[in-house]
Request: fold
Amino acid sequence: MSVWVAVIATGLGCYALKLGGLVTPQRLLDDPRVRRFTDLVPVALLTALIAVQALADGKSLEFDPARMAGLGAAVAALLLKAPFLVVLVVAAAVAAGLRLLGL
Reply:
């Protein structure tokens, strides 16, 4: 029963968030401070997600050489202007290859 309460609460929260975006006045969205904030938030959230996925294992921090090499390969592919799917494949291949070698 508690799982369904969480699912319904999450659904209502998502709906409220979407509704909030639709009813926000345009003059507020045109404010330069709000525009700058909305430009920077996705970058900060993605950076935090990458850091957690690359450096955390459960509830502890762990340095995994294969993950770090995969992340480095992804950065290199991005600097070479590779398409996103190629970046993912390169990162996965490097990490998998190093794991296969036992590193």
Summary: DSSP finds five helices and two strands in the chain. Helices lie at 2-23, 26-29, 32-55, 65-79, 84-100. The mean pLDDT is 90.
